[in-house]
Structures are given as structure tokens and as C-alpha cells.
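Researcher: Let's try something more involved. This one mixes different molecule types, so please make sure each is placed in the same coordinate frame as the others.
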Amino acid sequence: MAQAERIRLRCDVLVIGAGGAGMMAAIAADAAGADVLLVDRSLIGRGGATVMAQMTVAVALGEEVPDDVRHHLADTLAAGRGLCNPHLAALLCEHGPAAIRQMDAWHVGWARHPDGRIRQAHAPGHDRPRCAYVDFLATGPAVSRTLRAQVQRQARIRRVGDLCISDLVTADGAAAGAVGWSVSSGAPVSIAAKCVIIAAGGLTRLYRRNSASANMGGDGYALALRAGADLVDMEFVQFFPIGHLAPRLIGMDPIMWDPFRYKLGGRLLNADMREFTDDYGVSEDGTYRITRDLATYAICKEVEAGRGSPAGGVYLSFQHVDPALLSAAFGPVIERLAKNGIDLARMPVEVAPIAHYHMGGIRVSPALETGIANLFAAGEAVGGANGANRLSGNAITEALVFGRLAGEAAARAARTAASAWHESAAAPALALLAHEGARGPNPAALVAALQAVMARDVGPFRTAAGLARARAEIAALTASLGAGPGGAARPFDSARLDWFDLRNMLLVADCVAAAAQARRESRGAHQREDFPALKDDWTVNQTIRLADGHPVLAPVPASGAAMAAQ
Amino acid sequence: MSLVAHLLVRRGSAGETARWDRFAVPFERGQSVLDGLRRIRIETDPSLAFRFSCINANACKECVMLLDGKVVYACTARLEPREMRLEPLPNKALLRDLATEIAAPDERLANQRRD
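Model: All components are placed in one shared frame. Result:
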């Protein structure tokens, strides 16, 4: 069958990914006068991680208690275990309050005290109450909805869903646009753009159990790598310690227990119904104090020691909390839990670590520029602001702040940039779209196989042997994937989408495993069972660049350490 | 004895004659219809088309389809050990199988200004 005619688009600023960061970038670039095209492989404002965030937004508003950007920054840097890029962390903290006030002006609906002050919860790792939220478990959906309404109000912002970007196009070392295909029709698409912003989120789909959308397969990282940009800190995948495990819940996100913990405390119990975090140096006694990396460690060790719950996690109990208090704090959610057969006043639930967020990502300057001219990144796609472990509440702040700054920077660059588009530069990417081989092995099964490998060997606890095995299996899966997608392009071809996803997922999975293999110490979210201690000489960020299709690592002394030494 | 859910799925794309495929999925208490559909793609037929993004949270609202003639979200409809009839939304343009064109008209590629 002849391939459908290519659809050609043109814009000043192309934003890839329509989650929180992408929508904010589009709004900011448009406000700065750029002609903006916002695309997403799913529907606009429905996919990604922001819509799934049921928790909080950390920002030094000082509404609950007096606060200052410096305190938020100190907590962010401490959580990052010496590896934060301090310039990016400072940007996040400094611009956070304005972003949160802007969202407030757009009627996001932050929870408030009766006197009008924004409520700020005290989440672990913060020195004071700092985390704004929208009741009940609605922070992410409210942020998404609010940004979506703003994007729609700006008639000049063109929005296109169901558009899968397969490759960036560069010419003379600068971004020139992108090539992709329409999921709904299968037709190839080319987009000539003066500037490109990657806001495609993280990589949690690499893991079997994860808390984000199905479209978070690391495609932004893969696009950047293949375009010649650097990644950084790829070994640091954050596991959310208390992802819901059992009994089976539907219609609710597995990270839902965090708001319960910061409002009501709760008790983490092992099979002996004993609070065990004391054994790991953090006394909780019904409060919420333990940070994510430590909690993940403690839970995994309890399970390993045979003190886990039947489904392979630990218990989280609110049985000691007055039922009236439970209802007051989470009214409608308590009803949804009842429909799932869960009565928190009478039973604990089972929780276990779940892939939640990626600290690593595309290496950028404080202007959100990658090493490739006119290529920018925003949101979770950016690496560096959170170092080895992200402070809770910083992800949406990061999405909003970096989205806005990247949008402004790209619009500025687009004013003077000429279009660098060359058909010849786009030819290899277009040829891949036109590939019509036999349909290979079931790509959905290959995705499941990769997720199993990553969960087994590249999870929160790693060993040299496990990482070597993972890399060998990733290489074998890559070989079985073949050189191009099978079959001809056609409307809503899920297997074709899986093929393009796998191409990205396998590359990014290998980056995570390679960086984890090289880092022979334990720090934050990266724990090596064969190198259990943190080592000062590993106060180093690892960058990754692609050479001949393979990741090449380079160590760079962490700039936070250099600044602290001054 | 292990129980089985039988998913009877209306297949095909616009312009094709629709056919019905029957898939047997092991029934596990608490699972959703979306869990069953995802399992079919991994174990039996990766070409089976349906929309979803958030998997479990009912946040993306993309997995909307007909179950036994009623509009449901596949992520919140419980899998049951019986025959369950799945069809695409009747009032939206069919793309393939259970996937329909649910994007806002101005967010569709076909409606964009071309270069």
C-alpha cells in the first residue's frame, strides 16, 4: 500500500508533551509572542504525570508559617545528597511562589484555611509546612485542568493530540524540528520549528509497577540523546515507598496514600504488626517523617527478611485514627474506598515501593538550553534539579517553573533564529516511518518483558551481577525489536506505537542500567547492595551521550559540591 | 476451579466490515476490564486497539467504550467471570476496534493549518 501523504507543519516553537510542563511552556512562549505548536502522543492535557499527581506542590509561600526560598532550597539540596545542580534547584525554589500564585489567579483551587491563607502541609524532608494541595487527592487533575483551560484560551496556540514524535531533526548542530506520525491515521508528519522544547516527562513505564501514565516511557530522553544532547543522573529513579499494593483498587492512583499520611500520619507495620521504621533510624510513632529513599529501603528490607505482608509489601494502617477524623479529612475518598471493599477504620492496606519519578534527565543550562542550539527541555524531562533524590512536592513546582522559563527562553531564541529545516536532515527519520517489514515478535509482550527486567535488576536495589544481566537482556530485546516497525502504517495501530515506544524505552533503560553499573556506591535513590556506603569521591554527576548508538558515560564533579567548598 | 472472563470485542476500522473476536481472560477478583484488555494485547493479540493513558486512576478519561451497550470507563468497570460485550462509542468516528476519535476537533491533526 502506498504510504499516506506526509502532513507538513511549521511553527516558531514546538512543544513536545502536553502535561504540566508542556502546557506551561506553550502558554509562556505564546505570551512572549511565538507561534506555538503543542503536541502530545496522547490527548492534550490528559496524559503524562501531572494529571496523576494526587499530592502536593512544595513552595516557600510562607502562608502556613513564615518561610523563605533559602529554606526550601536547603531542603532540596539536602534531599539531593550532594548531587543537585544548585542553579537549577535555586531556579525551582525562587520561581516557585510566583508560579503557584499564578495558578491561584487561574482558579486552581488550592486548599485554604477559613481566614483565606493557603494551607501548606508538612511533608517529610521539609523543615516546615510548605506543601500546597487541592482537596481531595485532586492536586494534579486540578493543575492539569487549569493549564488546559489557559492553553485553550490562547487561540494562537495550536494543539495537536494523537501525534507521536519519533525523532528530532537537527541541521548544522541546531534543532530544526521533528518528524513523527499521526496515531489516529498513521500518516507521517514533519514539523519545521525554529525551537523545540522537550516536555515529554519521565521513564516510569520502564518498570512493571509504576504510578504514572502509560506514555511515560522515556521518549523525551531518547529524542534528546539521538539528537546529540547529553543526559545526566540517569541512575536515579525515585521509587515511591507506599504505592498501593492490595487489596486491588480501581479508579484510584496507587500513590494515593501520601495525602493520607501527611494529614493523618498512619502507621507502617510489618507482618508482626509492629512499626519498623525505628529499626532504620526514623521514629515515626504515627507521624509521617521518613523520606522516600529511606522508606523504600526499610520496606524492601522487611520484605526480604520475611516480615512482609501477604502480597509482598508492608501494612499501612489508619485503624488508630478516629473514623470521624478520617471522614473529615477525606470524605468522598472514603466512599470510593468503601466501593473497593476497604474500610480504613477496620483494616490496614498493603503498600510497596513503586516507580514514581526520575531525577535524571536531559542536561540543561539555567536557561533550560540543552547542548544543541535551539533545543530546550522542561519538567521531569530535565535532569539535575533534584540530584540523587527528589524532595516531595518539588515535581509540579519543577513542571510549572521550568515550563515557563523554557517557554520564554525558546520564544526569545525563535525571534532571531532562522528555520534550519532541511529535507535531507529529516530523511533518515522519514525513512524509518516508511519502513514496512514483517510484523516481528509481539511488541506488547516485549514491553512487559523489559518491565520485568527493570523491576528485577534495576529497581531500588542493584548489584553488579544484576545490572550486567539486565544490560544483556536489554541488548537481546533490542536485537529482537528489529530495524523498523512491522506492517504498513494504518489508523490506531497499537503495535506500531509499541514498536516506537520500545525503541525509546530500550535505549533509555540501557542508560539507567549503565549509569547504575558505573556508580559503585549507594546514594539516595541508587542503592548498590555490593557497595552499600556513600562515598565522598562519588560526589559526581554522570553524563551520558550517544556514540554509535550506545550510551557513553562521563563523570563530572557535582557543581553543588564545588559551590559548598567555596 | 479457575474462572474465566470472556471478552467479546467488536473489531475493525472505519470502512471495514466489523467482526467479533472472543478472548478468554483468566478472571482475577478486583481486576478491571482495562486490565483484561491489556492482558490480551500482551498474551494474545497486540493489534487489539483501545485508548488508555493513566491505566488505573480514572484521571485521563480516555478508555471510554461500550460495555454491554452502556458507556463505561474500562478502568473502573470490573472484570466479571462471564461474557462481556465491548464496542466502540457509537457516536464518535471509529479509528480501530475500540478506539474512537474523541479528541476535540481543533486538537486533531486533520484540522491543522499545513505548511
